[in-house]
Amino acid sequence: MIDRVKDKVVVITGASSGIGEATALLLAERGAKVVLGARRVDRLEALMSRTADAGGEAVYAQTDVKQRDDLSSIVKLACERYGKLDVLFSNAGIGPISPLDDQRVEEWEEMVDINIKGLLYGIAAALPVFRQQGFGHFVNTASTSGIKTTPNQAVYSGTKFAVRAISEDLRQEAGDKLRVTIVTPGFVRTDFVEAVTNAEVRAKLVESRDKFAISPDAIARMIVFAIEQPDDVDVGEIVVRPTAQS
Question: Is 156 among the catalytic positions?
Fold first, then answer.
């Protein structure tokens, strides 16, 4: 059986922890060349060593998705190092959720800058490369909060609804040579809740996380599933949530 993951070049933003980290390690095990982007260089260095231990190959670049030049640079790094770019996995995202009455406007702006503008900067960097190559795959992390919103999640949900809308339009514009996959996780056991500054909301999230959240590995397996499909198969969206999540 042909291994369609081996030797693919995959850029991952938000690679230093959680879903990004788990996906990088699984791809490395399958023989992909991963290009790791995140803000925490120490975590990237450690992850690069772990990908080597897993039998893969990796490079990294400190990447803040709020900076358009950082996205351009990491795409350029992938192309210069490996001669192509097969997949851009736009995974970086934050979710400091809180009631609107808290008026945490700076946090709202940060979610918009990272979750929406960061996604768009990645598309702007990779789309011309994919067009020139005649192939390429966008994989974008949304959330079940982008399907159904709940109290305290107005801005976060809004950004994830936007991720799904942008991704679906991108799919329709992409033509028959490019692929677009939306990965829509439910509650995953990551450091997501650490960014929540409202103590009451954070305590409830921690309780739920500890009770039923699933491993990032579960999401990583779905991402690899989408990547390994034949070039003429486009996995449009994968929703992965805990069985206990309402």
Answer: yes
Question: Cβ distance 237 to 182 under 8 Å?
Answer: yes
Q: Choosing from 60, 82, 121, 156, which is the catalytic residue?
A: 156
Query: What 3-state DSSP class applies to 245?
Result: coil
Nearest to 177 by CA among 133, 117, 124, 123: 133
| Interstrand relation of 87-90 and 57-62 (parallel, antiparallel or unpaired) | unpaired
The total of other beta-carbon atoms located within 10 Å of residue 52's CB is 12
Whether this model's pTM surpasses 0.70:
yes
Give the list of residues 6+ apart from residue 216 with CB closer than 8 angstroms, or none: 18, 19, 21, 22, 23, 188, 189, 190
Gap between the Cα atoms of 183 and 174, Å rounded: 18
Query: Which pLDDT score is estimated for 195?
Result: 86
Q: At what angle do helices 118-133 and 154-174 cross, to 10 degrees?
A: 10
Q: Are 236 and 182 in contact (CB under 8 A)?
A: yes
Q: Is a pLDDT exceeding 90 seen at residue 183? A: yes
Asked whether 231 and 166 are in contact (CB, 8 A), the reply is no
Q: What is the pLDDT of residue 104?
A: 97
Instruction: Please report the DSSP string for 28-45 in residue order.
Output: HHTT-EEEEEES-HHHHH
Q: Render the burial of 135-147: b for 16+ CB within 10 Å, e for the rest.
A: ebbbbbbbbbbbb
Measuring CA to CA, how many Å separate 210 from each of 50, 137, 202, 206, 245? Answer: 26, 34, 12, 6, 13
